[in-house]
Amino acid sequence: MLVIITDDYAELSREAARIIANAMRKKPDLRLGLATGDTQQGMYGELVRMHREAGLDFSRVVTFNLDEYIGLPAGHPQSFRSAMRKSLFDHVSIPVSHIHIPDGTLHGTPRNNFDEVCEQYEAEIRRAGGIDLQIVGIGKDGHIGFNEPTSSLASRTRPKTLMQQTIEDNRHNFPPGEEPPAVAITMGIGTILEARRILLLASGTAKAKAVALAVEGPLTASVSASALQMHRDVTALVDREAAANLQHKDYYRKALEMARKLTPGRLW
Ligand code: GLP
Hints:
7-stranded parallel β-sheet, 3-stranded antiparallel β-sheet, 8 helices
């Protein structure tokens, strides 16, 4: 895993957007996996700015979001679909038909229907030729997507019950009095690991413990993000605060410097 430690959130956002933009320039029909979270907001802001100011072209990009709440009606302002429109899709040149987000609107229908929704989602990813670059954030409990602790490391897209901590972390996005959903559809860890390249973003002290466990801890289903250690091409982009508990920070700095010298093409 390549670990890049930035001074702050602003630099992390710029660096993440730069990595995505470079991938898009290399492959204009990039299959891009996206994540919804506060962490990604600065990065989306940068991408919108690059689109406006430098003509960064999204017209051939195809996107797949990691996850979506189950039970919110279509168009609900707190759905991940709405959040993505607000932060990125409404401001760039991506055709609506290129956007894929799991459909969580089948509230109250038998689980069978969700099996179908999930299988279709996996099939769409396959039909698109797989994901070239997947962006992931990390939850305080080390989840990626909504793969809560004890999720199978081989899991596929499926409905997932959220831990109370995750529900509480999501609460600030909902108006007072409105209960955040307790279930979601998420790409599985196995699905995520099939992406050709993965970019993990983490910012702030609240993520320091999870980041250290994901990067330096043992591979375990108790920390979903530790499964990224199995992937051959992961970049962890973390700010100084989120990197606070990492043991080998000096090594990561040296390794990054060396990688930039020896394999400049690899770093987009
Ligand atoms: C949710 C999302 C994740 C995201 C995580 C952290 O659980 N499903 O994809 O990484 O929240 O979000 P934030 O960046 O807001 O801390």
